Structure formats: structure tokens, C-alpha cells
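Long-time lurker. I teach an intro course on protein structure, and each term I like to show students one example going from raw sequence to a predicted 3D structure in C-alpha cell notation. This year I'd like something fresh instead of my usual example. Would anyone be willing to generate the C-alpha cells for the chain below so I can use it in lecture? Attribution to the forum is fine with me.
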Amino acid sequence: MHLKVLYFAQLREKFGLAEESVQAPEGVRTIADLMQHLGARGGVWQDTLGGQYAFRVAMNQEMVSQQTALVEGAEVAIFRPVTGG
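-- Reply from a regular --
Happy to contribute to a lecture. Here you go:
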């Protein structure tokens, strides 16, 4: 499955890229699967996406849950929650 993945704020800085094209393997079916797949790259990817931080995710510009099924060609945006003061 082909996906466009966007990284915002801290993630963009940590990974050194704002977006990338990802060809997800057959077993990657949900947002949670995608996060695990990206984390499996190791290094900063595992440190950041390995479950110790909370993330918000939008697919095709709509907020979604970790259990949301991915769709071919989707744009997936990943970012840390923002708090106000």
C-alpha cells in the first residue's frame, strides 16, 4: 500500500524530513500498524515512535484513531498533541 506520510513540529526535526512516500508491506493495515512499521526502522524512529509518547494522527485531513484502517494512497499526518496555556 502506498502512503504519503507527513511529519510535523518535533517529529520533523527529529527525523530530518517533513514528508515521505511509504510503501507499506501487506501486514500494515491500520494506523497502529504503520506506527509500528515506522518504529521498526530503529534508532531515532524506534525511540520516538516506540510507544513512550502520545501522537495525534490525521488521515486525509481528518483526525483518526490508532485502529483506523489505512486506505491506498492516503495522506497520513503524524504529530505530537499540543497543549495550550
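Some talking points for your students: Helices lie at 10-15, 31-39, 43-49. The radius of gyration is 12 Å.
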